Structures are given as structure tokens and as C-alpha cells.
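Shift notes (night). Ran Dihydrolipoamide dehydrogenase while the centrifuge was going.
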Amino acid sequence: MTRIVIIGGGPGGYEAALVAAQLGAQVTVVEQDGPGGACVLTDCVPSKTLIATSVRKQALLDASMLGVHFTGGPDGDVGGVIADMPLVNKRVKELAQAQSADIAARLAAEGVEVVRGAGRLVDPQVVRAGDRTIRADVVIVATGATPRILPSAEPDGERILTWRQMYDLEELPEHLIVVGSGVTGAEFAGAYRSLGSEVTLVSSRDRMMPNEDADAAEVLEEVYRRRGMNVMGRSRAESVKRTADGVVVTLEDGRTAEGTHCLMTVGMIPNTAGIGLQEAGVTLDRGGFIQVDKVSRTSAPGVYAAGDCTGVLMLASVAAMQGRIAVWHALGEAVQPLRLATVASNIFTDPEIAAVGVAQKAIEAGEIEANVVKLPLATNARAKMQGFNDGFVKLFCRPHTGIILGGVVVAPGASELILAVSVAVQQRLTVDQLAHTFAVYPALSGSITEAARRLMQPTTPSGI
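Came back to this:
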């Protein structure tokens, strides 16, 4: 029986463990925080729970557009809709623990051994966990990553915080300054603005989310500004200092921004230091990320890696697929290498931003030839009924064959809507095939099939 030891119990680790157990391997997972790892306990699950709460509150605040009004609320709060932060954060933490417990139960049911502790490679076939030494035929490293800390902005857990510390606050921040306008910064900034905080978003670039679709980022920034958020573009933070009753953020150009709290969202660093990787022959890049190939192999024989510690698209779905691929390859099963072009991603802002396949910037740069269509969400009947005015559906296809190359959806529930485009990209469907697929009417998904119809090319020459 093949013995597999997995260091890390996040998506890359526990999904690999489940596949390995189902294929008959003897599996041990070494995890120091709990089943699900940081993804479930402190990062993805808690943040999306908080965001779900903020979206619900924003819907209540926007209900007046549909003729629904709230009265009798406390003075100073729009419509009397307030966020009870102790209760909100309690639910966030309890839900994370419940999800972790569900994962633990699933692992136990499949016969996976879970060892609580920090794992370390002694050599490519030996893992040390506390005072226990575990021999393995295959090792999978899935240790994740940690919020990057700037020396000039050391978190104190009270006023200067990482996102992992936000759920310990007893009150809603009066004025939250978010440093970093990437995906994490944009998500938390939008969530706390909807929950009732005054928010200042400090972006070092000329726009929010510079690595995402430019049209999508423009829509979101417009929504944020309309909701009262102060978005400071081209404003790189130099330092963050605590004051008597708040924080002051100093920018490189000498300007300052003052608030009651500061949330630092300036990237992630891999959890790869001090666990014996290089000593075991595992190659790391300059940023400390584990270098892997398309089937999750590292440079050390028998050692694989998955998840954020590899730096390959820091998404839970990618981590899970990397872990599964590692197991399939290690056990000699049929396996397809990881195809990043088919990875769907979502930004859990309000509205959400989902994308899959090629990016428009690649098309504009001449790297890929494609036809593009963009439909505003405001023309969709269901969007009108629900009062959704912001967003769009964008679809890309090859000019002659009509094969769908990718797309972007900016809408409430974009994370669900993108699946249709993901299937089309994965299966190399054409716009004709997608256009001939029934969509419910009225439904937001109708904009996807409508976009496909607009990309269809006539088979008969004009004038005949």
C-alpha cells in the first residue's frame, strides 16, 4: 500500500487526501491549525461569510429603489439598518469552525489520519511532526501562505490589522483605511462600506485591481465611489502609525490619511521557510514559492506541492485541483496537466466579478486574435426587475471558428453565472452551440446566451 503524507490541511491538502484514500493509499495529513487550514479557518470562508452579510445589508439599503422603505431606525443610520458586529463576527467564526468540523468528519470517514502539528521534511521520504517521524512513499506539501507584513506597518491586532484579525474587533470600525487595492483589499473595502464604516481605499496604481479586467474594475470603482467610499489612486503607502485614538497612513508623496483602523492587504508570502524544503532538494523561487510543473511535481523525487505555497494562482479551486493532480500522478492514474486557461476566478465584491479564459488585455496587445462582445447588465429584463444597474457580460471567441475563448461577468451572483462560460471554454464550445442553448427567461444567464448570439457569424453571404 502506498503511504502518502500531506503537510497542510487546506484545500490542496485535504482534497488530495480524499482522492488518495479513495484510491486505496494510506494517508496522513499533518495540519497545525485544523482541518481546512487557513483557507477555512481564517481566510476564504470567514471573509466570504462577512461579505455575504454585507451584501444582504446593502440590499436592504437599496430596497427603497424598489419601493420598500424602512422606518423607525436609530438616528444616523440609513433606513435604520445596522450591523451588529459582535453577532456578525461570532457567526463568521462559528461557521468557519463548522466547516472545519465537516472536513474533519469527511477525512475520518475515508480513513485519513490527521496529525495536529507543524510538519517538516527530514528528507524526501520522511516527515517530522512534533516528536513523531513518519515515513512516506509520496509527500505533498500544501502549507499555504501568510499575509505579507510591512516593517513600516506592523499589525497590532487592535488598530493596524491583517484580515485575519478583523473578526476579533468588538465594534464596526468608524473609519477604515484599507491599504492595497487588489482583490482582497477591494473585497474588504466594499464589505465594510456596506456594513456602515467610512472607508478609504489606498491604491498604489491608477485604478483598483490593476491585474483584473479594466472594464470590470471601472464599474466597481464607480459603484464604490457612489456608495461614499474614498478611493485614492496612485497613492502608495509608506508607513502606518498608531495614534491615541486611531491611525495615520503616510503616503510616499507626503500626504496623510487618518482613520480609526487600518487594514493591510499587501499580498501573501508562502509558508515555506524553516520546514526543510531546500535541504530535501525542493527548489524555491526568489519569493520563496515552491516551483512545480503542470502535474504538481517539485524538483525532489516523490515530493509534490499544491496551493498557495506554489504561487500558482492563489485560489482554493486551483489548490484543490493541484492536490488531486498530484495524487493521480503519484499513483499512476490517468491525469491531465493543470490548464490555467480554464480556471474560473471570482472576486466577491458587490457586484461580483467573475472571469475565465483569455483576458481582454491579451487581445488588445495582439497576443490573441478574438472577437469581443460586451452587453450591459442594465438591458437584461431580470436585472431591471431586481434593480441591478451595474455590470455586464463580456464574451470572447475565435474570429473564424467561433470557439469560445473566455469571458467576464460583472453581476450579483457572477460566481454562479460564470459556470456556463467555464464549461464552454473547457469543452471548446462555439458561440453557435452556446447561443442554441436554452436560458430561462427572465434570468441574468440570458445575457450570456445573448452575447453568444451576437458573436454568431452568418453562414450565408449578405445579399443572397
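Residues 228 and 256 are 19 Å apart (CA to CA). Residues 74-78 have pLDDT under 50 and may be disordered.
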